[in-house]
Specification:
- The chain is of the alpha/beta class.
- It has 2 domains: 190 residues, FAD/NAD(P)-binding domain; 250 residues, Alpha-Beta Complex (Polyamine Oxidase, Chain A, domain 2).
- 36% of the residues lie in helices and 16% in strands.
- A 7-stranded mixed β-sheet has the order 7-6-12-13-14-11-15, with helices on both faces. Strands 9-2-1-10-16 form a 5-stranded parallel β-sheet, with helices on one face.
- Helix 1 links the parallel strand 1 and strand 2.
- The longest helix is centred in the middle third of the chain and has 14 residues.
- InterPro entries: FAD/NAD-bd_sf.
- Pfam families: NAD_binding_8.
Length: 473
């Protein structure tokens, strides 16, 4: 029987193991931590009974992942829950951009910009199920729906700031800017509209749900599915030398390119090793989890009903702060994402205490403490928030890397989204998962299609391994 070892038990490592196991391969997953999950783990922090997501929180690409749908994670205990409103972007004048799952409701809220919103996103939402799989594969492939992909392309190559100018009102401009800022890069360069378009269209198609019980429920379900197929999962097994990896026909690496180089760099072809060395990590996050008494006292009531709240001010301010941060400056008012998962999943709370998830965009490798900057940004749009804080857990760039070694310098997206690396990672190739070492493949979020708890990096990498081994069904 063909054997495989998967190094790393994050969502993509588990997905790779599942894809191999369902094709008859004997799979063993080796996870360094005591719990599988990587970026999709959850549990208590300072206050007993409060459930926090340790990294990923909302999952428009997860609930819509064709691979998770094929596996049927719901059969293994996964439940999704949706907030009443997916996302808001409050402004200093009290107005707010509101993103509903329904594109019609969003357009109605945006008023004079509603028609523009529907023109920009409507066809993407209607055709999402057919064209999205083309976008979620390596770029060097023949698209299955070329006309729909061609319609997406002219919008996707734009700088996000250009697309923002198509709206007449500040709530609409800010709303799109906040979604586009998930790319973790300056928004005034080409291709930065792409991720904002993709996340917005995915949200209108599937919503921005949370996993009931925490994001760890996604990977717990994936692990249960793998075990049912005969897969073996071993935790507490850090791999620092390839001699520690058991002999196997296939080795899948749910690791960063730098970690792959450390294990196999001396065996990789020189051109591929050079590409891995040139691979750039992205900007960093600074995460702050709060336990608060009651609800955040948002100035506008819509944010009190939203799962996600983007805090960054106007579209121009978001573009400015992201440009300064990308240049290495820690700004006074960084872009902050706030998660209120308990609104959709009340079981995460304990009595009158509620868990609040947040992180700020900070310069790469930022070594300071951004806790006060995060609190200040929340206070800006929710006066009185500070008085409700019961406990605070701050995780800086060093702490994020300790939590997950793939998060080099606090880079939670697996590599910079700028220049060609936005669409080509970790290198331009027909098979970007192959490392050049026979039987060894990269399957982390540093491979196509990139960050997100969708499992597609792992599933596609495993499919490439199966094809090369002549095992694809």
């Amino acid at each position: 029987m063909t054997t495989a070892v998967v190094v790393g038990g994050g969502p993509n490592g588990l997905a790779a193991g599942l894809q191999l196991a369902r094709n008859g391969v004997e799979v063993t997953v080796l996870e360094a931590k005591d719990q599988v999950g990587g970026g999709a783990r959850s549990g208590e922090l300072e206050v007993p009974g409060l459930i926090h997501d340790y990294c990923s929180a909302f999952h428009p690409l997860g609930v819509g992942s064709p691979f998770w749908q094929e596996i049927g994670l719901e059969r293994y205990g996964l439940q999704w829950a949706w907030p009443e409103i997916d996302c808001t972007h409050p402004l200093d004048d009290g107005t707010v951009g509101v993103l509903y799952q329904s594109i019609a409701e969003t357009a109605a809220w945006l008023g004079v910009d509603g028609r523009r919103w529907e023109l920009i996103f409507g066809d993407l939402v209607r055709n999402f199920d057919s064209f999205a799989p083309d976008l979620m594969r390596p770029i060097v492939n023949v698209p299955r729906h070329p006309l729909q992909l061609a319609a997406f392309g002219p919008r996707a190559v734009l700088p996000a700031t250009w697309l923002t100018r198509m709206f007449a009102t500040e709530p609409a401009r800010a709303l799109f800017s906040g979604v586009a800022a998930h790319a973790f890069t300056r928004l005034d360069v080409p291709l930065t509209a792409a991720l904002g378009l993709m996340i917005t269209a995915s949200g209108h198609r599937f919503g921005w749900p949370v996993a009931v019980g925490g994001s760890g429920a996604i990977t717990a379900a994936a692990a249960a599915a793998l075990r049912e197929l005969g897969g073996v999962i071993e935790t507490g097994v850090p791999i620092t030398d390839r001699a520690q990896i058991p002999d196997a026909d296939i080795v899948m690496l749910d690791l960063s390119p730098a970690q792959v180089l450390a294990l196999y760099g001396d065996r990789m072809p020189a051109r591929i090793a050079r590409a891995y060395r040139r691979y750039r990590v992205g900007s960093s996050a600074f995460k702050v989890d709060f336990a608060i008494r009651g609800h955040i006292p948002w100035r506008n009531p819509e944010s009190a009903r939203a799962g996600t709240v983007h805090l960054g001010g106007s579209a121009a301010e978001v573009a400015y702060t992201e440009r300064r941060r990308a240049a290495g400056t820690m700004v006074e008012n960084p872009f902050v994402l706030v998660g209120q998962q308990y609104l959709a999943d009340p079981g995460r709370s304990a009595g009158e205490l509620n868990p609040i998830w947040s992180y700020a965009h900070v310069p790469k490798g930022f070594e300071g403490d951004a806790t006060e900057a995060v609190i200040r940004q929340i206070e800006r749009f929710a006066p009185g928030f500070r008085d409700q804080i019961v406990a605070t857990t701050a995780t800086g760039t060093v702490g994020l890397e300790q939590y997950n070694a793939n998060y080099a310098a606090g880079d939670i997206i697996g590599g910079a989204n700028n220049k060609l690396q936005t669409v080509v990672r970790p290198r331009l190739a027909i098979d970007p998962y192959a490392t050049g070492v026979d039987g060894v493949y990269l399957c982390s979020q540093s491979a196509p299609p990139g960050a997100g708890i969708h499992g597609l990096c792992g599933a596609h990498a495993a499919s490439a391994a199966l094809a090369r081994a002549g095992l694809a069904r």
